[in-house]
């Protein structure tokens, strides 16, 4: 690859890598898995860089999500992960405990449902945009999001709509 | 703060836990070069495979595949063609191979040795397509193929020129029986692409889109004027652990999008040419407990499953018989409508794990 394109690729990773890693970490919940996911997507982009460098970020994002949910597609439907124990219900400190419980519950969702939530709530994508990234129908996005929220409510508890959270420490 | 707000905060919390490694670009570059080397090696290997079948034993390539279902002895067998790339390859039932598509690399990290080829009807030879296309669906007549790129579907005409459309790739697009149009399932309905002009007409079918099962794909009916989409039982509980069950198909007018009728059908019509020429029978996709999807023949009039073909793909031919491709892409079988094997042919070894499109000579 020409030196100018190599330089461009390096600059792209430096500039957009942190954003991509945030997405990957929200998808995987694990720093190493997130790094591997992003590195794999960037590797595919690098292999095609002369052709896609003008719109590299959209390409990498699509690969990122597709790689994460491709196991779901290959196997038909991925079964939900059964939690060994139910997440801890909010106790004396409802804010922190509930946040942790919700985080833990979020990580037990099937990959595709979590991908939908990340696109909708981290990237603020519309249902249509989410469907395009995941290569499915908007109706599927809506039903996956609905199922995911219902599952979270079931796992964490029915009073999720009652407590207010401090936004400190969150974006 | 409602649940959605809390999920938003939690997803941002999770994202905040990311750490940026020092060598991300270097690692990606190293892996990217490996991918490029594999692709370059793959193109060369695929070119060789076009003119001479590989001699790797079948068992070595398919250790993890389930054993093929036992089939009754066919009335006739045809040996594996050796030098198939230089003329249209004829299959049982007197149809020809119009394209052999690699596995979608977005869904599985496969080297492009499993590249795609398409029939050039003008020369009668098969030509290899560039790596840029993810999947290829050969045209049954006239044109060469519809292909999926990173963002949109493209039509390759008889002269090899490609026309990109603004239709996003979704479930497998379907060629019309006369090979002049392509039916694509979209997020809110279906789109018909005119292959000659690339013009797209879109039709929204919100009710069916809402009630569509996981296997959600429009198929052409044999008259080329109507299309069908499976509909699930919307009152049934849905589960991540199993596929939705279709209970009927909704028939729509292909030119207006208007719903015409619904027919009880317990499954999703599968593949190109899913319907028999008289429209009385349909090939359905049936997913077993093990997750493998077989094809079954369903009689719409009697509401009976006539046969479980145990194949990965099956297509009705114009004479009412069926052609079925097995899962590893090793054999193709000609069936009568009762599922009896009439003829069997071994496919070239280079077809392994790819999908085959068929058409008329």
Automatic annotation (TrEMBL), chain A:
<feature type="domain" description="RNA polymerase sigma factor 70 region 4 type 2">
    <location>
        <begin position="100"/>
        <end position="152"/>
    </location>
</feature>
<feature type="domain" description="RNA polymerase sigma-70 region 2">
    <location>
        <begin position="14"/>
        <end position="77"/>
    </location>
</feature>
<keyword id="KW-0238">DNA-binding</keyword>
<dbReference type="InterPro" id="IPR014325">
    <property type="entry name" value="RNA_pol_sigma-E_actinobac"/>
</dbReference>
<dbReference type="InterPro" id="IPR013324">
    <property type="entry name" value="RNA_pol_sigma_r3/r4-like"/>
</dbReference>
<dbReference type="InterPro" id="IPR007627">
    <property type="entry name" value="RNA_pol_sigma70_r2"/>
</dbReference>
<dbReference type="Pfam" id="PF08281">
    <property type="entry name" value="Sigma70_r4_2"/>
</dbReference>
<dbReference type="InterPro" id="IPR039425">
    <property type="entry name" value="RNA_pol_sigma-70-like"/>
</dbReference>
<keyword id="KW-0804">Transcription</keyword>
<keyword id="KW-0731">Sigma factor</keyword>
<protein>
    <submittedName>
        <fullName>SigE family RNA polymerase sigma factor</fullName>
    </submittedName>
</protein>
<dbReference type="InterPro" id="IPR014284">
    <property type="entry name" value="RNA_pol_sigma-70_dom"/>
</dbReference>
<keyword id="KW-0805">Transcription regulation</keyword>
<comment type="similarity">
    <text>Belongs to the sigma-70 factor family. ECF subfamily.</text>
</comment>
<dbReference type="InterPro" id="IPR013325">
    <property type="entry name" value="RNA_pol_sigma_r2"/>
</dbReference>
<dbReference type="Pfam" id="PF04542">
    <property type="entry name" value="Sigma70_r2"/>
</dbReference>
<dbReference type="InterPro" id="IPR036388">
    <property type="entry name" value="WH-like_DNA-bd_sf"/>
</dbReference>
<dbReference type="InterPro" id="IPR013249">
    <property type="entry name" value="RNA_pol_sigma70_r4_t2"/>
</dbReference>
From TrEMBL, chain B:
<feature type="transmembrane region" description="Helical">
    <location>
        <begin position="41"/>
        <end position="61"/>
    </location>
</feature>
<keyword id="KW-0812">Transmembrane</keyword>
<keyword id="KW-0472">Membrane</keyword>
<dbReference type="InterPro" id="IPR011042">
    <property type="entry name" value="6-blade_b-propeller_TolB-like"/>
</dbReference>
<protein>
    <recommendedName>
        <fullName>Protein TolB</fullName>
    </recommendedName>
</protein>
<keyword id="KW-1133">Transmembrane helix</keyword>
<feature type="region of interest" description="Disordered">
    <location>
        <begin position="63"/>
        <end position="85"/>
    </location>
</feature>
């Amino acid at each position: 690859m020409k030196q100018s394109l190599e330089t461009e690729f390096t600059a792209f990773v430096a500039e957009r890598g942190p954003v991509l890693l945030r997405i990957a970490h929200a998808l995987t919940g694990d720093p190493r898995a997130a790094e591997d996911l992003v590195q794999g997507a960037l590797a595919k982009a690098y292999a095609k860089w002369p052709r896609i460098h003008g719109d590299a970020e959209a390409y990498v994002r699509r690969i990122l999500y597709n790689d994460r949910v491709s196991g779901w597609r290959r196997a038909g439907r991925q079964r939900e992960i059964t939690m060994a124990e139910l997440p801890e219900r909010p106790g004396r400190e409802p804010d922190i405990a509930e946040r942790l419980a919700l985080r833990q519950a979020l990580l037990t969702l099937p990959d595709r449902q979590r991908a939908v939530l990340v696109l909708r709530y981290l990237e603020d994508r519309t249902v249509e945009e989410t469907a395009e990234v995941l290569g499915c129908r908007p109706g599927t996005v809506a039903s996956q999001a609905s199922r995911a929220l219902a599952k979270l409510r079931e796992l964490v508890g029915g009073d999720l709509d009652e407590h207010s959270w401090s936004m400190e420490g969150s974006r | 703060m409602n649940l959605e707000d809390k999920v938003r905060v939690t997803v941002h919390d999770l994202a905040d836990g990311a750490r940026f490694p020092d060598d991300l670009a270097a690692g990606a570059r190293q892996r990217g070069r490996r991918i490029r080397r594999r692709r370059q090696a793959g193109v060369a290997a695929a070119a060789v495979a076009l003119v001479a079948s590989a001699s790797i034993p079948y068992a070595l390539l398919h250790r993890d595949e389930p054993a093929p279902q036992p089939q009754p002895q066919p009335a006739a067998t045809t040996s594996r063609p050796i030098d198939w790339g230089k003329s249209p390859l004829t299959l049982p039932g007197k149809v020809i191979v119009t394209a052999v598509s690699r596995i979608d690399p977005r869904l599985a990290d496969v080297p492009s040795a499993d590249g795609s080829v398409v029939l050039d009807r003008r020369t009668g030879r098969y030509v290899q397509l560039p790596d840029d296309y993810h999947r290829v669906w050969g045209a049954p007549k006239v044109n060469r193929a519809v292909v999926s790129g990173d963002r949109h579907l493209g039509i390759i005409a008889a002269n090899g020129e490609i026309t990109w459309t603004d239709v996003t790739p979704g479930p497998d697009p379907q060629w019309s029986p006369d090979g002049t149009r392509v039916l694509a399932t979209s997020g809110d309905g279906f789109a018909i692409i005119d292959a000659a002009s690339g013009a797209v007409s879109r039709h929204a079918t919100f009710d069916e889109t809402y009630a569509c099962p996981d296997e959600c794909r429009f198929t052409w009916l044999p008259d080329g004027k109507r299309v069908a989409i499976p509909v699930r039982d919307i009152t049934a509980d849905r589960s991540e652990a199993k596929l939705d069950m279709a209970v009927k198909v909704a028939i729509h007018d292909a030119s207006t999008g208007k719903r015409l009728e619904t027919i009880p059908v317990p499954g999703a019509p599968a593949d190109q040419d899913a319907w028999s020429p008289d429209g009385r029978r349909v090939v359905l996709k049936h997913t077993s407990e093990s997750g493998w999807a077989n094809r079954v023949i369903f009689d719409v009039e009697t509401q009976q499953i006539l046969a479980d073909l145990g194949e990965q793909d099956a297509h009705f031919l114009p004479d009412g018989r069926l052609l079925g491709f097995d899962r590893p892409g090793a054999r193709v079988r000609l069936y009568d409508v009762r599922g009896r094997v009439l003829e069997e042919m071994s496919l070239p070894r280079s077809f392994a794990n790819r999908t085959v499109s068929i058409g008329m000579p």
